[in-house]
Amino acid sequence: xxxxxxxxxxxxxxxxxxxxxxxxxxxxxxxxxxxxxxxxxxxxxxxxxxxxxxxxxxxxxxxxxxxxxxxxxxxxxxxxxxxxxxxxxxxxxxxxxxxxxxxxxxxxxxxxxxxxxxxxxxxxxxxxxxxxxxxxxxxxxxxxxxxxxxxxxxxxxxxxxxxxxxxxxxxxxxxxxxxxxxxxxxxxxxxxxxxxxxxxxxxxxxxxxxxxxxxxxxxxxxxxxxxxxxxxxxxxxxxxxxxxxxxxxxxxxxxxxxxxxxxxxxxxxxxxxxxxxxxxxxxxxxxxxxxxxxxxxxxxxxxxxxxxxxxxxxxxxxxxxxxxxxxxxxxxxxxxxxxxxxxxxxxxxxxxxxx
Length: 355
Ligand SMILES: *Cc1c(COP(=O)(O)O)cnc(C)c1O
Fold this sequence. Notes:
five-stranded mixed sheet, 14 strands, globular
């Protein structure tokens, strides 16, 4: 089976052997307060810092999912006013979490297949945190980072949170221009589910301290201050998903040897292959008509003959793709383009789609 699903997806090739390695090393039985775990925590965060060029004064924490990261960000970085850029289901989820936590969250909405009208956006002065979903997995729309950085430049007192769940490690973030970056590992890192990673600027940490001092709840065991206290000892507040942290470290080490530039180039190459294929195929059309909005990692395609039929036919060749999101499931398929997908596998998928 080859999984071109949006997530969980194809496992990164070294994952099976790395699971065996974890068993052999007994890592699954050690205490999360042990020296062995301390070393794993330290290695994993250091390697991630190297891979993604994360500044040394930014903090890296382990959570349980991407959605949990959204909740912790709102709790720890917003007293009242977050502003959400919504152009799909995941950005809308982020906004809803603000509302559910009793904040006065506001939204700037765009059509679900579009980006935003960046030049005419007006941002209320009281905004504390701006929330973006870099890559909308529901619609296959990717936001331009330079527009986000520009907004930051014009609103220096505001903090910026960015969801990169389905674009990391392809996306090349300039961390100094954002305050909270998060992802879960079952998408671009090709790992089993159950681990989220949150990367925070010093300003994000300061904000959480300010909220605590002003008697606003920042949560309990997963408040930023609780994370900091344990991370200083290379630990997590609770018993974490040790296996996934171990596997993440193995995959990152492999990516470091391969080189992040090559990984990104290969994703560009495969994205071009998909683009050309769709252009030449009468049966297929991108959901997003505007080329510049289209994601490189998530390709949402309308199938004229019906999505279900195509999904069934691909399954016969042991190829699994995702259906369209929610009400789009009848007519659309979604194909992921992650580091775990080889160029050869992508060729085979595209050839099979044509047949
Ligand atoms: C999958 C996804 C999430 C949710 O991540 P979980 O780990 O399932 O909580 C959030 N945002 C985006 C863009 C996603 O693709």
